[in-house]
Model the fold of this input.
Amino acid sequence: MPATVLPADEWRARAAVHAERADSLTAGHRARRAAGETHAIEDFLHTYYATRPGQLRRWHPGADVTLEGAGADVDERLTWRWYTPDGHGARVDVDAFLADRGPTVRFVRELLSRTAQRPANVGCFGLHEWAMVYRAGDGMRHPLPLRLGAAATDAVVESHQIRCSHIDAFRFFTPDAVPLNRLRPTRETQADMEQPGCLHATMDLYKWALKLGPTVESSLVLDCFDLALDVRYLDMQASPYDVSSYGLPAVAIETPEGKAEYSALQRSFAGRAGTLRAALVAACDTVLARDLGARPEADRG
Done:
């Protein structure tokens, strides 16, 4: 049974604060979308992770929490996927969520817990973005010019060692850049290779929070979004693209000073990510405890 019952006035206040925060975080994207405009840095979080501002605006209490009361907002919530009524009001139906998404929860828990056990590598210098445009010709991934030009960009790639461990960065390398990577991340080895200093692994905390759906309290989802946005800015400032049109300076990783700046920011982000990663693992454990309790003793091994 749910461990916590939130009085109606308390959870409605939390939901209102959450909606206000979500609106603030997505205001720029919503305004650009209405005007038919784009932003090469910020829109990534809405396109690559395929989420809508309305999804972020919905507040969920997480698993094992009942929202007390009645009314139109409770009735509406009961139409949302994985919600169920109980004697007090409405709650997330953890059993139904686990039946639908159990393998996903187990995968996320395994990936995040194993990532947290590794030391952070802060010596990659964001070269994954450079490898994505190496000898690309006109095949740029973003509508921005190259800061150093094509030939000098290729020279930066060729003068560095590339050790990208993240499959969803590596899969966008150009064909000529693939053999330059010292590592060979695959989907099958993802849990063996991801490390907490990786900017993309940190941004992906937002994806995993979304995958865990209403079993994660929504302030944690916005915390992950907020961190992902900060990381995305560094990812692009340290990339070969010229982001000066957004009023941003480059983090020139081809120089010693730029490398030092990048590594320091990477350490800072890894620290923030560690806290959120632990909270997501705890959310997985809450859901999976229900699965463990439902299984026969002989199957719990």
Q: What stands out?
A: Strands lie at 4-6, 65-68, 83-85, 89-92.
